[in-house]
Amino acid sequence: MAALLLLTGCATNAVPAPEPVAARIPTDTVPPAMAYLYGSAEAAALSEQAYNALTGYVRATLDKARDARGRLPHQRAEGTSPRWPRSAVLAPGATAATAETLRCGVLPPAVVLDMDETAVLNLGYEYNDARTGAVYDGKRWERWETGGADRVVAVPGAVAAFRALRAMGVTVVINTNRSAAHAADTARALADAGLGEFRHGETLFLKGDVDGRSGKDGRRQAIAARYCVLALVGDQLGDFADLFNPPGPAPARGRRMLPSVAALRDRWGAGWFVLPNPVYGTGLGAGWDDTFPEGKRWSDDAPVEGAK
Length: 308
Fold this sequence. Notes:
The chain is α/β, with parallel strands linked by helices. It contains eleven helices and seven strands. The protein has helices at 8-11, 32-39, 41-65, 123-132, 138-147, 158-167, 183-192, 217-224, 252-257, 262-265, 288-291; strands at 109-113, 120-121, 153-154, 171-179, 204-207, 228-234, 272-274. Helix 7 links the parallel strand 4 (171-179) and strand 5. 40% of the residues are buried.
């Protein structure tokens, strides 16, 4: 997908599937955003860093929740201490100002992750985009979902993190806006990437599940009814809460400031973990004024050497 395409997969937490903002033309040069995300050591390091931080956070959280006999809250009577922290999932009706999260009780622990460009890199699809310059087409994405399982790779750090989490007794759950009609193909893609087995409706939640919406809050809350969700992982803000993607147009500058609201900012790296994605999604909608505030612009007005 071109850097200027907004894919619903991540724009509203859906799979890559939005209306294109602009068409691209074929090129023999790898688009810079793709070269960075899919080919650079720096992007790989960022992904490893995020997954290292995730596993470290979860391990520390488990250690704090163990009693003197090493038992976790779901392994002993409700009400005994120490208890789980509150879930990483926002409660229904939560706002950026309150950001109240759900209680865990004695549910078993889990981590919930987005799929595309969070758990797997869609190398085959992005190669086709880069080579052809094709704009987004829903039928083409459907063909990718059903036929591209062996053309994805795991995001750097994901395989080791998934193994470590499972070894700690933490369930790994994928919440993606790939189509529920293609659940078997999606599970196969995850397995082919080395990320293990996922079951639809148990550890794999897809667009159309629970409430039929592309926003993920309904699915997150359904997952949180089964598990104490210790952490959320994604490449788009909608992977953490639908409040980041309100209906209707929103000023990019205002949206940029939202993650820094007092009730939300301490969650980054402490239950919410973001991976890099400069290729597509809601983060690519800012214009000149949103990106470069007027009062912070600079112009090099020095005279050209030799000019009269």
